[in-house]
Amino acid sequence: MKLKLIVTCFFFSLLSAYAQDKKFFIGLNVGGKFANKYYATRYTGAYQNELPLLFDNPYVYQDVYAVLGNKDFSFFEYNENYRYSPAINYGALIGYMVSPNLQASIDVNFSQLKVKTSYSLEVIDPGNQTSQGQYEVGFILGEEARFNGKFNLDYISDGDNVKFIIGASGLFNSWRMERLLVELKNESWLYNLYTVNGATNNFTKRVSGSGFGFGINLGLEFKINDKFVGQFVYQPYLSRMEYFATKSEIEATGSTYIKPKRRLEHDVTLRILWK
User: Fold this and answer.
1) What is the pLDDT of residues 192-223, one digit of tens each?
2) How far apart (Å, rounded) are the C-alpha atoms in residues 189 and 51?
3) Neighbour-count burial for 144-153, b at 16+ CB within 10 Å, e otherwise
4) Where are the domains of the chain?
5) How many Cβ atoms from other residues are within 10 Å of residue 113's Cβ?
6) How far is CA 148 from CA 15, 39, 88, in A?
């Protein structure tokens, strides 16, 4: 919330510059974000193998035992088919016409990403007379707030009604885990950095981070009226963010270190500009 307030004040403070120099322009962004599934790994419970630790927690164990009809259980497997759902991306933009065909701009965008995946428990039922195992499937729900700040340099072709756009962008990213729920039969358990219902676990999980990246802009500009234009832009970019524990944190817990690397993500953005 503080970040959104700071960004809003910054953009309004630039309106005076826009009023004095018509080379400045402002606008609003709305579109879709398609985040890389690699970053969703931290919501599955598989990273640092923390989901079995959750069920070993005595508070959670007793709850699950009761949900399963007073039957014992053991963790069975993760679902490897996980990803972020496409999210709405929205924000604002301010720019400057360097020349009739070249524009520089800074835009800020916010999005709320969601992850849904599943896991399986093996139910230990002494009354089961068959050779087949009994399993229960539960779900994991994650929510993440994402902020993107981009510096864009775009070339706009000549044309009357429709113009082509090609450009490049530099990117700053930040993220924050908003919620992480483990569900089973309409019951849910919230777990975060170190604790579950007050009991300490021996795993380390980041709840926020940041990073940098770069990308390209490909799109079209079309005239709305004498004061407004629209720009529809496809923005693929490579970003590297701090999503996992540091090497020293991993060594302290005996888990596997995952080296950060740049990952491909995609934005599809509609800009409405007042020029």
Assistant:
1) 544 444 444 545 667 788 999 999 999 999 99
2) 11
3) bbbbbbbebe
4) 2-274
5) 22
6) 21, 15, 13
Residue type, position 80, single letter: E
β-pair partners for 273:
27, 229
> d(Cα 143, Cα 111) in Å, to the nearest integer?
11
Report if pTM > 0.85: no
pLDDT one-digit tens code per residue, 34-67: 999 988 888 888 877 778 878 888 888 899 999 9
Q: 2-274 is classed in which CATH architecture?
A: Beta Barrel (2.40)
Among 128, 126, 144, CA closest to 265: 144
Count of residues for the chain? 275
Q: Amino acid identity of 218?
A: L
User: What separation in angstroms does the CA of 179 have from each of 35, 90, 144?
Assistant: 17, 21, 7
